[in-house]
Design goal:
The protein is mostly helical. Helix content is 64%, strand content 0%. It has helices at residues 2-23, 29-53. Helix 1 packs antiparallel against helix 2. The longest helix is centred in the middle third of the chain and has 25 residues, at 29-53.
Length: 74
């Protein structure tokens, strides 16, 4: 199942890269609107998928450079 989720993430990332490349080309106003809308949809789908696939995030307390138990002399 994780393989399927990773394949979906890869597909969304590839689509985002493709739409960003298209944005750098000569497009009509209508084409540009379409590309920008699809790019926003792909980014939202990627964010939702990654938050479901990798729900845990670790963070350090503000002002900390390392955990308090790390780096202590033995």
């Amino acid at each position: 199942m994780l393989d399927e989720e990773l394949a979906r993430i890869r597909a969304h990332r590839n689509n985002i890269h493709r739409y960003r490349r298209l944005e750098r080309t000569m497009l009509s106003d209508l084409e540009r609107q379409f590309v920008e809308r699809r790019l926003a949809e792909e980014q939202a789908a990627l964010e939702a998928l990654t938050s479901r696939t990798f729900p845990v995030t670790l963070s350090m307390p503000r002002g900390s450079t390392r955990p308090s138990n790390m780096g202590a002399a033995s």
